[in-house]
Fold each of these.
Amino acid sequence: MSSSALPKRPAALAVAAAAVALGLTGCSVEASQAKPESKSFPYRGTSLKVKTHEVATDLVAADRKDIKVTRWFDSAAGTVHLRWTLKGDTLDIDAGCTGLALCDARFRVEVPKGVAVTKDGHKTRLDGRS
C-alpha cells in the first residue's frame, strides 16, 4: 500500500476539531454573568488554608462566624467539575471543565475577621483581590 493510499484520519480529526472550535467561538461564557451559588461552612479555627486550583478567588474578611463561599460558574462545553469542601483547616475549591471545553469560574470567600489565611500556600491579605 502506497503512502497516498493510507487513510487521512489525522487530517480528518484536525478538520473536525477545527469545525467544533469554530462552532464554539460564537458561544460566550463569562462567570460574572452566571447566577451565583453560595455555601456556608461552620468554622472555629484561627487559621485557614485555601486551595484554589488557579481559579480566580477573592478572599475577604467579614463580620461572620462561618465561612461563606460564593461561586459563579458558566460553561458551554466540556465535562464540568465543581468542588467546594472544608476538611479540618483546609478549604478546597475548584471549578472548571475538561475535554473540548469552554467555561469560566470565579469564587468569593468570606472569612471571619481575625482568621489568618493562606491561599495556595502563600500568606494572603483579605482585601478581596484575586
Amino acid sequence: MSYRDLVQKPVLTAPAGVSARPSILAADLQIDGHVTSTGQIQVHCQINGNLAGPHLTVEPDARVKGDITAEQLDLGGSVTGDVTAATVSIHPTGRLTGRITYGTISVAAGAFVEGDLHRMAAAEPALTDPVAPQTSGSASA
C-alpha cells in the first residue's frame, strides 16, 4: 500500500522527468497547514497539520500535531496524531501519542508511545504448492 493510497487530499507531484529532492524544514519554522512531498522530508520545526510523503524524518527538535502518512517514518521528535506508515522506527527521543497503523514497527528503549497499535493487513501470498503445510504464524510461550 502506498502512502498516496492513504492520503485523503490530493498529493502534489513533481513534473514529469524531475526527481523529488529532500526537503529540510528548519527549526525556526512554524507551519500551520498540511505538508506533502514526493521526496524525503526532514522535519526540525513545529507543524500544526497533517504530514505526508514517502520518507519522513521527524527530528528530536520537531513537534507535529496532526496525522502522518508515509511509506517510512523515522521518529525522534514528538507527534500527537494518527500515524499510518509501512515502516515505523521510533528512536529513544521519540514521543508518539495516537493510533499507529504500521506494516513493521520498531520502538527503541526510552521512546514514549501511547495509543493503539494496528498492523496493516498483509497481501495474501500466492501459494506455490497448495498441498504444502502452512505455518500458523503464532508463537507459544
Amino acid sequence: MKTLYKGMDVVSALQFSRSDVELLIQVAEDLRRAVERGERLDIARGRVMFTAFFEPSTRTRLSFQFAMVKLGGSVVDLGPEEVSSMAKGETPEDTLRTVDSYGPDLVVVRHREPGFAKKAAEICKAPVINAGDGYNEHPTQALLDVYTIWRVFGRVDGVKVGMMGDLRYGRTISSLSYTLSNFRDVEIYFISPKELSPREEVLKVLDQRRVKYELYEKPDDVMEKLDVLYVTRLQKERMKPEDYERLKGSYIITYDYLKKFSRIPIILHPLPRVWELTTDVDVLPQAMYFEQAKNGLYTRMALIKLILGL
C-alpha cells in the first residue's frame, strides 16, 4: 500500500495506512499550534485550489477553502449549479476537463454519484480529493473524526466506537470504519434499524482486517461500553420517501436520554443534524461535534500541505 506522497489523489479511506493517519495528526497539530500562535502562514502562496461541489455542502466546502487560504493559497469555487454551464446541460466531467486545463494545483470534488471521485481523478492532471461521492465514501471526514478521537483520548488504539443511525447510505460510516481498522484492538458497535445496517462491502473489509464489530438495534444495549458515540442522520436524499417517513424517529439522542446512563461517551456527529441529536445535548462536556468540525480545518490543512509537497 502506497503511503501519502506529493501529488496523490485521495479517493478512498482505504488508501491510508496507520502511519499515514499518524503523520496527518502530527502535521495537523503543528499547523494548529502555528495558527493559534497567530502566525501568518504563506507556504501555499501562488497555489490554486479548485472546489467543485456538485452536491450541497457547508462544513466540508468551507473548511477546505479556509484551509487553503490559511496556508496562503488561493481558492476558485465552481459556485452553485444554476450559475454555471451545468444549467445549460454541461456534464460535470466536461466542467472538470475545462477547469483542469487552467492548471489548478488541487481539485476538491463532491458528487452524488458513488465512484465519481475516482472518475474525476482519471480526468484531472491535478491531484483530486474526494469530498464525498454519494453513499460511497468521505475520506477526509474520517480523518478528522479520528483526529478528534486522538485529541480526546491521546490514542486511537483500543477505542470502542458506536456508530448510530443511517449506516447503509451514510458515507461517513464506511470511511470511518476503514480508517479505524488501521488501529489495534478497536471495537465497533453498529447501531441501526435492520434496514439501515452497514453495507456488505464495509463489513467485508472489517472481516479481512480482523476488526471486532457487533450489530445492535438499540443504543441502550451498548451505550455504557462506548468511548465514542458517532451519531448520523438519515440520508433522506438517498431514500425512498416512504422508507424515510417510516424510519425517522427510530433513534434520537437527547440530554435526558443520556443522563440516565452512569457513563456517557463523547458524542460525535459529522453534521448537519436534524432530529436525531437534540440541541439540549450541546451543554454536555461530552458533546464534541463542533470541536470535531473545527478539527476538520486543521486536518484538511495538513492534507493539502502534504499533497502539494509544501
